[in-house]
């Protein structure tokens, strides 16, 4: 099983002062970033469709073993009746994302902070998520941001559909650290300007240990679970350093890659 670590996106002006080499052309930034990280979460897909040619280019500009995670479109998640999301989900997968080929990683479906848990409503959404598209297996994660989701019923629902619940670390959002899928998707948001690497050495060590524990099939003993954990099976881990003091996020991600080894 693999542990992939990265950041959100690759176009960010402050990174041209503390991450990218001087005078590196913007067209070469993805190539450089993907040489230092093992995954990147594409956020632009949350706001609107990208062109198939863009996905194909991103595939070609990155190493063979690189993987992208994608944010699902907000048009699918920011709605009153989630069971009506199927057309938006279908348009998303028809927009060219499969041009990423083997570099297509999990899809993060992020919900607004106002969306509360309703079992029937949410199951209607999960039923809209395809397990395969044109013969390619698709992995889904849901990022919920309302306290009402911190109940065993939600964990059981995600587990029944094989969908990961995004672990939001070091943030004000409710944290649900239960493993519900054959992979783990974590987004950590605690980088600060005061720390040279965004996080302290101790904090980086903790997240690296958690990632290794997840990959080995266990659950970290320092993260609270909502429901009982079932089984122990090795799994892929995707961890992204997001938000916080964004200028330091690449440094934190690269240090985590070093620690994890």
Uncertain regions spanning at least 5 consecutive residues: none
Biggest sheet strand line-up: 8-7-4-3-2-1-11-10-9
CATH homology group: Protein of unknown function UPF0759
CATH topology: TIM Barrel
CATH architecture: Alpha-Beta Barrel
Mean pLDDT: 97
Provide the succession of SSEs: EHHEHHEHHEHEEEHEEEHEH
Helical stretch tally:
10
* Strands, count: 11
CATH class: Alpha Beta
Q: Rg, please?
A: 18 Å
What is the domain total for the residues? Answer: 1
The helix fraction, in percent, is 25-40%
* Strand residue percentage: 15-25%
Record keyword descriptors for this entry.
single chain, 261 residues, alpha/beta, TIM Barrel, nine-stranded parallel β-sheet, 10 helices, 31% helix
Descriptive account of the structure:
The chain has 261 residues and is α/β, with parallel strands linked by helices. It has a single domain, classed as Protein of unknown function UPF0759 (TIM Barrel). Helix content is 31%, strand content 18%. It is built from 10 helices and 11 strands. The strands form 2 sheets. Strands 8-7-4-3-2-1-11-10-9 form a 9-stranded parallel β-sheet. Strands 5-6 form a two-stranded antiparallel ribbon. Strand 5 and strand 6 form a beta hairpin. It is globular, with a radius of gyration of 18 Å. The mean pLDDT is 97.
Task: Please write out the topology.
Elements: E1 3-8, H1 15-18, H2 29-36, E2 39-42, H3 44-47, H4 52-60, E3 67-71, H5 74-77, H6 86-93, E4 104-110, H7 119-126, E5 132-133, E6 136-137, E7 140-143, H8 152-160, E8 164-165, E9 167-169, E10 183-188, H9 201-215, E11 236-241, H10 249-260
Parallel strand pairs: 1-2, 1-11, 2-3, 3-4, 4-7, 7-8, 9-10, 10-11
Antiparallel strand pairs: 5-6
